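Job type: complex structure
Entries:
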Amino acid sequence: MISAFSELEYKAKQEWQALHSSSKPLILIGTATCGRSAGALETLETFQEELGKRGLDYSIIEVGCIGLCFAEPIVCIKKPQAPIVCYGNITPERARILIEEYLLKNNPLSEYALGTVGNGDIEGIPALLQTAIFKPQQRWVLRNCGFIDPANIRHYLANNGYRGFMKALGMSPDGIIEEIKISGLRGRGGAGFPTWKKWQFCRQANGNEKYIICNADEGDPGAFMNRSLLEGDPHSLLEGMLIAGYTIGAKLGYIYCRAEYPLALERLRIALKQAQEYGLLADNIFGSGFSFHIKIKEGAGAFVCGEETALIASIEGKRGMPRPRPPFPAISGLKEKPTIINNVETLACVAFILQNGANEFSECGNDDNKGTKTFALVGKVKYTGLIEVPLGIKLKQIIYEIGGGTFEGKQLKAIQTGGPSGGCIPHNLLDTPVDYDSLKGAGTIMGSGGMVVMDEDTCMVDFARYFLDFAQKESCGECVPCRLGTKQMLEILEDIAKGQAKPRDIDLLIELAEAVKASSLCGLGQTAPNPVLTTIRYFRDEYEAHVKHKMCPAAVCKEIISSPCQHVCPIDTEAPVYISLIANRRFQEAFNIILKDNPLPSVCARVCHHPCESKCQAGKWGDPIAIRALKRFATDYAFKKNAHPNTKPQRTNKEKVAIIGSGPAGLMAAYQLAHQGYAVTIFEALEVAGGALAVYIPEYRLPKHILNIDIENIKNAGVEIKTNTRVGKDLSFSELLSNHKAVFIATGAHKSRNLNIPGEDAEGVIEAMEFLSRLNRHKKVNLGKTVGVVGGGNAAVDAARAAARLKECRKVFIIYRRTRTEMPAFKEEVAALLKEGIEVKFLLTPTRILTQDKKIIGVECVKMQLGEIDESGRRSPVPIEGSQFVIDLDTLIVAIGEAVDVSFLGKEHSIETSKQGTVVVDPETMATNIKGVFAGGDVVTGPGTVIQAMSCGKTAAEMIDKYIRGESLVKEYKFTRPSIYIPPVELTEQEIEEAQRPELPNLTLDARMDSFAEVDLNMSEDMAVKEARRCLRCDLETAEGKRQLEQGFNKQDG
Amino acid sequence: MEKRLEEILSSYEGKSDELIPILQQVQSEFGYLPNEALIKIAKFTRVPESRAYAVVTFYAQFRLTPIGKKHIVVCRGTSCHVRGAPRILEQIEKHLGIKEGQTSADLEYSLETVACIGACGLSPCIMVNKKVEAKMTPKKIVKFFTKDE
């Protein structure tokens, strides 16, 4: 028996050697399902055509996949005397280039290469297994995928294939069970039951007729580990089944594979046929006395058939409905005979263990969690793919090192494991080791290997609803808790997603979930509530935002948000309305809509950080609509037409309201209150009004004459602005309080943070806020020739770009302690900074200021490197010992943050402040602990954005109005809806095809640097209309919006 | 139809546990399960018609109505879901004028969704007549259906 097998193995090895040391190049093309969907068959055709044309001799083999889904189609080339080189994204076009360059000439095209495999190096191309994606991995189960021909049993034999089975034939079944026990293998299908134990139950069960079934149903959406293994290395499963069959005493095995995997089924059938031809599946295999055959049964599309007893029913030709256990299948299963059901991966591990020994397998992992596990890493992560890692690896490593982290600018939110039966792990628990027990402790399960990454654009309520919808569709209907329980849970979740839930619904959901878990007949019902329970556990605030605040923070739930742009705008600007008005060339009306909610429209059109654009639906599939630039178009249009309203509303109330600070928060509150008829006075300490808008944001970003137009309009609404009036000096806070019915503190954050390094008090070390303020107010500034700016936020960028425009500054640069990705300044500001030739010296921290005659002559900096990933998912900078060096300069501008100073309140005030010195308020009402005193903007939050400050001002105005009228300060929440629906424009097919965000016009470099002229220019009318037409009109996708569409926009809905 | 059905049945023994594989093969041949075929299959495998019907309506794979010349399957798996599949489905429904589970009046198109195709690394995915198309976007859909017309 052994010699017969050895002969087969020997021949196979000869063939393999010959293939790999041939003078003909060997080309491996990954044509598994993923490869095909990315065009691998076209690539294959191209190779065959081109090589045929040139009369070249070659071998092409279609292989499985190496797991790098994001880089499909993947082609590996082995030339004589060179290692295998793996190439990614090989489209037919690239294939031609590859043939020309590498096969004909000798240029290995490192820019297309992913890595090399095997002996030898190629300059410029790293070893594949040493790359960041592969280094943390341990590819045991997947060792052959992508490198052998899955339709050629000899390739499997040449790589130790079936050796494990031959070894097993020479062992006793008890001996094999012992080996599996030592290996520590636990079921890889999800439950993690010790494999040796299950086998032992079956082996010890009465009867001679026993069955082994491989569960290849892989029903979890988001999981494809088993599919890849079946398509890439089907024999490893067959070997595992042979070993299992021999151990438990079965003569017949079934592979139950889902019908949605046609390629896997095809490869399995070929493998079966070849195994039969080679005598590995036969009666009396190799004369051992052991007979074994395998049949394939196709699943018919029922997730519940992943459950053992349902699977058995399906094989028996019945409806896949589970039955109560005990008796367990190991005692009474298929045809009521002892049956073992194992997952594909479990059986592949068995083959590996018998081939290489239990000790090798158990070297990976920890205590009770041994070996490796494959995962399908998918979702909102850069490098999606099939990975295999040692159990116990930290989730953090998988997401960031292997997966490359989230996409640019998106925050990681949570990771889902275990599919519909699992739960989510939030971003702050990334140190969780990935093993059966740790994941259980975190509230989820290992599952079969699906790992879905979610970012800030995923709504956890919608996610739970998605899984319940799946459970409902797949519930077999047999038991009441699952059939009715999941339906009720789904209905509650749908109510929450529509904003129609009642406050007690969240707790009701938990109660229902626990009942369904405890009383369902099978695993489907028992685990269906898990996604709900874990999302509530870790993201309860998101549920409450939906229920209480009619908010969906991820901007997903349509009936709540209407359009994401309007929903996430802190002041509820009706972006879809003004955009569609512009698309319809109704420019004046567009401006009116903007002005309705925003008294600083020209300002926001230039400096808002546009959260709307970050959630724009068009942005999910291309570039977001240029919403801010469209606002600019509308406001510039109104400015040209001199179309600002200048009516003074009737003063109906006599109550006086005082506002301290004329920044965006104060101006917004003032405008709203004046419209209600209150007598509003703003007390501004400086000689100009506008706060940060006037004194910090430079002229080239926000021309002051534009700002003043908006401020004039606010004054015309009935607001009095007293400049040069400092509370705490010209009048006391308590005076103010006694003379006004209510006071709104909106004084901002202006205290510069210090570097706290020696020499900071030298001449030439300037605070950024001081510099910008003096510059904007036309006071003298004293900058030298070589200017360094410390910091990475907007203040630093503003200071640097402003300094670069001054004639006396020859060289300006920024010193920042992290890298570009971590800079908190607005992305477009950083881009403009770099365009203007201002260097950013990354990864540096100042340690000491060098002086001569008390003047600064240089700054000593230490180099930084990015260290461990912290909770926020960013790497914290760590100084590199001994790397200090000096940068020569004569000016250092410090822009590392602003703190709040409320000393103007006087020593006797009793307003509650935080440790950081900010004023403490109720976030829903802006009320301080003192009746009648409200606060908002940076003075409460610390440095924030213009629009956030305006939002605080808006809320404060609402609450002050309620307060003065004696109503309780309760915030009302309503759904986001536009006040009017504008008919959509029809785009031609060509327009849709060509639709793209335009390059927004701006001043040329030459024109910029000599002056403070505004850099961003207005769009032309045609450009604006074209861009506005690109809007997807999300507002028409709610039930209300759809009705408007159907009814022809005649009725005013809701 | 009759002849082809006979041919298919001849390779089976007529046991009740062959019910599902036979249904799968017949559907593969005709694109759906015609009523007359169901009756014959039930008789052949010696199960009551009610049981055959129960099995057919239990499993998502089986169809009792014909599919279109172009059968489109949209994946609603987890990875596809978080990467925008709902919008892809909407766009297709809009473009074809039919909803999930329906066939167009001219039998050109039919639309269905499945829980998972298994090409999650390249989501969102759809299948058109068994060919998987990866990394779908609304633009690609427009291109797709205009190219085919």
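Summary: Residues 19-30 of chain B form the longest helix (12 residues). The first strand of chain B starts at residue 70 and ends at 75.
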